[in-house]
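@channel sequence for tomorrow's demo:
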Amino acid sequence: MSEILCQWLNQELKVSQTVSPKSFAKAFSSGYLIGEVLHKFALQDDFADFSESRISSARLNNFSRLEPTLHLLGVQFDQNVAHNIITEKPGAATKLLYQLYIALQRKKKGVQTRVEMPTVQPLMSTKVQNMKSEAFRDQRLSKRRQNEIMAKIQAAIIQIPKPTSNRTLKTFDAQKLMKKKKEAEDVANEIKKFEALIKKDLQAKESASKTSLDTAGQTTADLLNTYSDDDYIKKIQKRLEEDAFAREQREKRRRRLLMDQLIAHEAQEEAYREEQLINRLMRQSQQERRIAVQLMHVRHEKEVLWQNRIFREKQYEERRLKDFQDALDREAALARQAKIDFEEQALRDKEIHEQIAIERAQARYKKHYSICAEILDQILDLSTKVADYRLLTNNLIPYKLMHDWKELFFHGKPIYEQASLRHLPTKLSAEHLVEMEKRNLLDNNDYEEYKNMVGEWALPEEMVENLPPSNNCILGHVIHRLIESSLPPQVESTVPELPSFAIKGCLLGKTFSGKTTALKALEKSFPIQVLSIDTLVQEAIQAFHDNESISGAHGLQKAPEEKVLPVRQKSGKENQDVQDEALPEREDKTRLDTDARKAAKAEEVVASDSFSELTVRAQLGAKSEMLLKKGKSISDILLVSIMVNAINQIPMYKGWILDGFPMTLNQAKLLEEALTGYNRNLIELEGKKSQTSTLAVDPTASKEVPLPPSAFDFVMLLDISDNSSLNRMNDIMAKAFSSEAPHEDINQRVAAKNKDTDEDQNLRDQIQHRIVGFLDNWPSLEQWFTEPENILIKINAEVDKQSLFQKVKEMIMTEIIKKENKVKKKLEEKEAERKEEVSLSEKTSPPPPPPPEPEKEKEVHLPQERSKTPAAKGKQASEPLHGNREPLQEGKGKKSETSLKRKGSPRGKSLGGKIPLKKSPAESTDISPVPVVPAPSKPGSEEWVYVNEPIPEEIPSFLVPYWKLIENSYINSIKTVLRELREGQHSVLAYLYDIRTGFQQFLNRPDHKQDFVSQWQADFNSLPDDLWDDEETKAELHQRVNDLRDRLWDICDARKEEAEQERLDIINESWLQDSMGIAMNHFFSLMQAELNRFQDTKRFLQDYYRAMECKIPMDDTKKFTRVPLVRLDSRDILESQLRIPLVPRRSISPESALSKPKTKSILKGKIDYTLESVELNFETDEKMVMDTWQQSSLAISHMVAAEIHQRLMEEEKENQPAETKEKLPQAAANKKVKKEPPPPPPPPKKKKEDKKGKGKSPPMAEATPVVVPAEETEEVELKNELKLRIKEEHLAALQFEEIATQFRLELIKVKALAFLEELVIKAVDVYRLMDKWLGERYLNEMASVEKLTGVARYHIETSTKIQNELYLDQEDFFINGDIKVFPDPPPPVRPPPVEKEENGTLTIEQLDNLRDQFLDIAPKGIIGNKAFADILLDLVTLNLGTNNFPTSWMNLTQPELQELASLLVTNSESVDWRKFLLVVALPWPIPLEEELLETLQRFKALDAEQLGTVTYEQYKQAGLWFTGDEDIKIPENPLEPLPFNRQEHLIEFFFRLFADCEKVPPQLDYTQMLLYFACHPDSTEGVYRALSVAIGTHVFQPIEMPHPVAAKNFIKVFQDLGSKNLEPIEVAVLLKHPFIQDLISSYPDYKIPDVKIILQRSEHVQGSDEERSPSRLTEEKK
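C-alpha cells (generated this afternoon):
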C-alpha cells in the first residue's frame, strides 16, 4: 500500500520531496506535503502560507489550514489524527493519505476547485438544513419516480393499455415556456419587494435619527460639541460603507440562492421531460412497447449488475481497508514491542557498561590501595628502622645509613632484610631476588659516589685544589676507536633534503565519537587523504581476489613500497633481543607464544614466484585473508604494512590523516619505525648504554643521539564519555529502526528482521569491548604521543556535528600553519648553513702546511668499513695540576668547554663524526695564522690530532674484551669493598650498643645490701619500750648504725672494683683491633683495585700503540704489584701458600703503652691511662696505612719510569741499524745527538727532555747535506714524526693515568685514616661513657647509704620505731609506705546513733510505742474521743508515760489534752489515731499533689496483680517522694556516734503504721496511706488532693452521708447537671456545682491540725505549707 501511494506521489503528482516507504511518516509529519497534494488539485489556495519547518508552531499552522479542506472532501480528520501524524506514529500518515487518495479519485470526474467548493457547501448557517432537506427530497422523488417507472414497465409487460393523447408536443412546449416566464416574473417581483423593504428600512432609520436629533434639543448640544465634526462624519461614512458592503454581500447570497433554485428547477424540468418522453414512447405500438420494455428490463438488469458490482467493490474495499488497518495495527504492535525490546536492551547495555566500569574502578582502587599500603608499610618500616637505630646510636644516626634507607624507600625496596645472602640456594626465591636488587642498588650508589668523589668520598679541602681532569681523553679515544672497529657497519637512514608541506596526522577516539563523520567533511575542505584501516584491509583482500598484478606503472613504484618492512626485518635480525625487551605486549597475549612468532616470521619470508607477481597490496591482502580464515586476528605488523603501503601511494604534496589508527601502543611503535626508520626504544637503550659508568670517555664521540621526529604532525583525540558513546549507538540504531519500511512479504520481513537483529547484536557486543579496549590502551598511547614532543590535541566531542566539525577544522588549520612555519624555518636554517659553509671554505682556502702529501695519502687509505654513528657532544671540565707535575700536565694539555669546535687536519674531522664542525669567526682568526709551523699541541687537548694509524684486525678483537674485563673487575672489586664497609658499619653500631647495654646490666646486677638493712631494722624495732630513752642504749644504737654504714660502703667499693675490671676487660678485647684491621684491609683492597686498573691500563695502552707501530706485543713476565694486607690471626702460614702478601699486626699492650712516650693524641678531655693502648694502636695502624700508600704510589711511579725507559731503549735499538746504512758524516752527527741523553736510570723530567730532543733530531739530520734521494728523505722524516707522535700520545695517556691513580690512592689514604679515627673515637666515647656511668653509680650508692644513716639517727634521737620498710636498692634509697614491718593498733568502735528530743518532737521509738498501744486498743484505727483523751492523760500523768512522750508533753493538762483530741475528731464521737501519729511525727516533707500521683503510679507499676497492696520490699523499691539520704556529716572523733537519720527511719515507721500486720508478710494499702498523706493545713486543698489520689486509682468509693437531706441534695445536684437517672458524671463537672464546692470547703477530715499551738503557746506558730499545687490552681482557673 505504501508503495502505491509513493508511486502516486512521486510519479503522478511529482511532489517537491521524494517520498520513500521508510521516510513516509517523517515526510508527512509537518503537513507541508499534504497541503502540496491538495494544492496540486486546486483545493488549497492558501498553500503559500504553509511552512516546511518542523517546529511545533509551523506544524500547528499547517494542520489548522488543512482541517476544513479535508472535512470538505469527507476525510476523517481530528485532533488525534493530527497528533499521531506529528509524532510519526506508524501507519497514521499512510491511512490519511489513502483516504485522501480515494476521495480525490472520486472527485476527479466532477472537477471541483477551491473556488467552487464553497458553492457545494451550504452558503449560510441558517440555510444548511434547507439545502439538506431539498437534496433529500430530490433523492426521494427520483427514487419514487424510478419505482413508478418500473411498476409501469411491469404492468406494460402484462397488459399494455393504450394511452390517451390529451396534449400535443406544441402545447407541451408552450406550457413549459409559460411556466418559465411565470417563474422569472415571480423571481423579479420578489427581488423588487426585497429591495423596497431594504429602502424602507433605511428611510425609517434616517428619519428616526433626525427626529431624535431634533427632540434632543439643547441638552445634547453640549455633548455633540465635545466631538469634532470630522470624526462624526468619518463614523457615518464608515457606517455607510459597512452597510453598502453588507448589502452587496446579501445581494450576492440572494443571487446565488436564486441560481441554485433555477438549477434545481431545471433538473426537475429535465426529469419531467424524460417522464413525458417515456410516456409518449410507451404510447407507440405494442411491438415498440415490448421492445421498450425489454430494453428497460435490460437496463434494469444492468443497473442491478452495476449496483451489485458497486456493492461488491465496496465490500472488497472495506476488506482491503480492514486488512490494511490490521496490517498497520500489527506493524504498530510489532514496532512498539521492538521499541520496548530496544529500550530494555539499551538499559541492559548500560548496566553491563556500569558493571564493567565498576569492576575497572574496583581494580584501579585495589591497585592504588595496594600501592598505598605498600608505601605505608615502607614508611612504617623506615620509621621503625630509624627508631631502632636511634636506640643503637643514642639518637645520632649516621648520614650514610639514612641515605641508604632513603634510597631503598624511594625505589620501593623493603628496608628490613627479607632473606640472607650469605649462603644462596641453587634456586633463588623472590625474597632472595629482592635482596639481590637491594644490594645492587646500594652498590651502584656507593660506586657512583666513589667514582664522582661525592658523599662519603667527597674531597677534603686540601685536595680540591689539586683535582686532576676527570677523564683521560686519549684513553677514551683509543677505546672508542677499538669498539667502532669491532662493530659491523650500520645502515644510515636517509632523510629527505627538502621537507614536505603536507600535513600528517591521525584522529583517535572511542567508538561513535564522530571520527569518520568529521574526516569526511574535512576531506571536502582540505587537500588531504583519509585512510581507514578497515577500508584498507578490505581493499587489500579485494585486490588479492582481483589478482592485482604488477604493471609497468606499478613496477616503478615497487621499490619505494617495499622499503616499508626491510627496516623492520633487518633490525629484527640484528637487535632481536633488544626489541623483545623494548616492545610491549600486544592485545592478544597468545601472539607472544612461539607459534605466533614462527607465523610472524613465516609471513615475512619471500613468497613464491606466482605469488610475487601480485602487487604489495594484494600480497598483504592474501596474508590477511589467510589469517582471518584461520580465525585469527591480523597481526600488528601486517596492519602497519597495509597502512604504510597506502601512505606510500599518496603524492608528496598531499597530506593524509589516519582514521582511528593506531589503536595500541605496539601499532604506534611499528608505524613510527616504518615511517621514520627509527626505533625509539633502541635509541633510548643506546642512550642508556652510553650513560653507563665507563672509566674513560671519548669527548669527540660523546654527543647524545637526538630522538627522531615523530611520524605525525599532530594526533587529535575526540574525547567522549562512555555513556555518550552508548547513547549515540542507541540513537543510531533507533533511527535506523524507525526508518524501516514495512515489507509486503512476511518471509522478507522476517529475513530482514533477523539480519538487522544480527547486525545490532554484533554492534552491541562489540561496543563494550571497543570501549574497554580503548580505555586499556589509551594511557600508554597518550604517554607515547606526549613524550618527548607533545603532539596530542584533545577535543570535547560531546557536541553536535556542526560544532565538532568546526572545532576539528580550526585545529587542522592551526596545525597546517604550524607545519608550514616549521618547514620554512628548516629551509632558512639549511640556507644559512650552506652560506656559512661557502664563506668558511672561502676563508680557509689555503691548505694546512704541517701534514705533507704522503701523510694525506696514508689517511685516505684508512679502513672505511667502520660504521658511521652520529657523534655526540660531550663537555668534560678539567683543571690543570700545579706543583711538581707541571711538565707532565703540559704534555697532556688543557681541555676547553666546546670539544667539537676545534681546528685540525681532515683526519681529525673524519674521526670526529659525520657532522661538519662549525667555527666561530674568533676561532678562525686565532687558528688560521700566517703559514708558519704552529706551536706543537699537547696530546689529549682539543687541538691534538690523534694518531689513527691502521692496526691489525685481530688487535680490536683482543683488546676490546680485555678492556671490558678491566672495567668489570675494577667495578666489581670497588663495589665488593664498599659493600663490606657498608655492612661493617652496621656490625660496629650493634657491637657498641651491645657493650653499652651489657655494661649497664652488669652495673644493675643485684647486691645484698637490703638484707643487712632489713636485719638492722628488725633489731631496732624489737628493742623494748622501756629502753628507748636510755642514753647508753642510744649510743649503742648509733654504733650499730656506724657498723651498718661501714659494711654497706665495703659492698659499694667491691662493686666498683668489679665494674672497673669489667670495663678493662671490654677495652682489652680484640674487637677494636680486629675491626680496624678489617677496615684497613678493605681500604688496602681499594688501593689494590686502583693499582690493578693502572697496571691493566698500562698494558692495554702498550699493546695498542705497539700494534699501531706494527710491533709484536711484549710478553710481560712480571707479576702485578700486590698491596700487602694485615694479618688478623696469629697462625703461621708459608709465603708460598699466600696469593696476597700479609703483614703482621703489631698491637700495643697496656703495660708497654705506659712506658712509650706520647707522640700524638686523638683523645680529648681528661687523660685516661686505660685508653692509651687504644691510642697507640691507632698510631701504629695509621703508620701502616701511610706506609702502604707510599709503597703503592712509589710502585706506580716506578712502572711509569720503566715504561719511559723501555721506550728509549727501543728507539736506540731501532736507530742503531739505521746508522750503519747511512754515510759516515751522517752517522757521526746522529751519534752525537743520540749520546746526549743518558739511557740507564733517567728520571722522568730528563726523559721528557730527551724525548723532546729526540723529536728534534730529524730536522737536524735534514740540515746536513745528504746524497740520499729527496723522496726517501721525506719518507724517513714522516716515519720519524709519526713515531714521535705515537710516543708522545702514549706517554701522555700513561702519565694521565698515573696522576689520576696517585690522586685516587691519596684520597683512599685520607678516607682510611678518617674512617679509622672515627671508629676509634666511637669506641673511646663508649669506654668513657662506661667510666662515667661507673663513677656516677658509685657516688649515688654512697649518697643513698648516707641518707639511710640519717634516717636511722633521726629515729634513734626521737625514740620512735620505724614502722615502714627502709628500702635500699642499688643506688636508690626510700621509705616504702606500702609495706609495714609491724601492724597498726586496731581503731576504736564507734557507738550507734541515738535520736535526741528536739522541740517537743516525738522520737521514732516513742512513735513505735504509741503505735503498739493504739494497735492493741483499736486495731481498725478509730477510737472514741473520750477514750483517746483518757489514754493520753494516763500516759502523761502516770509513770508509764515518762518514756512515751517528750518532756514538753509531760506538763499538758486535761483541758489541753481534750483540746488536742478535738482537733483530731473526724466526727462527734471518734478519733483516727493513725492520723494523730502522722501529725505528731512532723516534721516530714509534705508532698505536692504531683509527688503523690507519681508515688501512686510507682506503687501501681509494682502491683502486678492490681490488688492495691504491696509488701515491704516493694514499698522500699517504689520509695516515697523523699529519701533518707541526707547530707550527714561524719564526726572526726571516732568515739563520737554518727548523727541519727530521722527521715530514713520515718519511711520505715510509715510502713509499720499503715501496714496490715496480721497478714504474712505484712501488706500495705498504698492508696489508703496516700490518702492520709493527702492531708493539708488547708482543708479544701486536702480534699482536692484526696480526690486526685482516689481518681488516680480509677476506683470511686460512694460517699456515705448520714442525713437524708444531704442525699436529697446529692440527687438534686446530679439532676441539675443533667443526670436524671443518676448516671456517672465527670468529676471535673461535678466539682463545679456550688453545693459540692460548699461541701468540700466545710469538710475537715483532710486538714492537718497544728498541735504545737497547744504545746508552745508562747512561741511563734510554726508555719505550714500553704502552697497549693500548680495543677490544682490551673484546674480552678479553668
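heads up for whoever presents: The first helix runs from residue 2 to 13.
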